[in-house]
Design brief:
Number of helices: 3
Shape: globular
Radius of gyration: 16 Å
Organism: Streptomyces caelestis
Protein name: Regulator
CATH architecture: Roll
CATH superfamily: Sporulation-specific cell division protein SsgB
Order of helices and strands: EEEEHEEEHH
Number of strands: 7
InterPro entries: SsgB (IPR006776), SsgB_sf (IPR038658)
Strand content: over 45%
Number of domains: 1
CATH class: Mainly Beta
Keywords: Cell cycle, Cell division, Septation, Sporulation
Pfam family, one: SsgA
Length: 133
């Protein structure tokens, strides 16, 4: 989907956001932002946090989400704090996505793995870690 990126005091500009969901990692949603064929950032977000961000402000760390109105539409405002720069500040970007589109994507993930039915295979994870995979 096309979203709008605002970095610093600059105006918003369109970038592509690819949302994906893997049932093997049922609590996470991955979003990859790209522009002109270049990946700008890749974030893994908590699926329920994204859902909550559509209706109320959530997040206190590197990711903060909240609903916003813009004209006739509703947006999901996603604020990301990244690595530190040399002056001690941090990279900071705000992305605006149409809330309806994000909500439709979340609906599809819930059809795949309904909330409360997530399964985490801890034994498989530990086996992978112990064997170095």
């Amino acid at each position: 989907m096309v979203v709008e990126l605002q970095a610093g005091a600059a105006d918003r500009f369109p970038v592509l956001a690819h949302l994906s969901y893997e049932p093997s990692d049922p609590f996470a949603v991955t979003v990859v932002f790209s522009h002109d064929g270049r990946v700008l950032a890749r974030w893994q977000l908590d699926r329920e946090m994204v859902a909550e961000g559509l209706v109320r402000p959530v997040g206190i760390g590197d990711v903060r989400l909240r609903p916003e109105s813009r004209g006739v539409g509703r947006e999901l405002r996603m604020e990301f704090l990244g690595e530190a720069h040399a002056d001690g500040g941090r990279h900071h970007a705000v992305v605006f996505a149409w809330a309806e589109t994000v909500g439709a994507f979340l609906h599809e993930t819930r059809l795949t793995v309904p909330p409360g039915c997530e399964e985490v295979r801890v034994d498989d994870f530990l086996a992978d870690v112990l064997t170095g995979n």
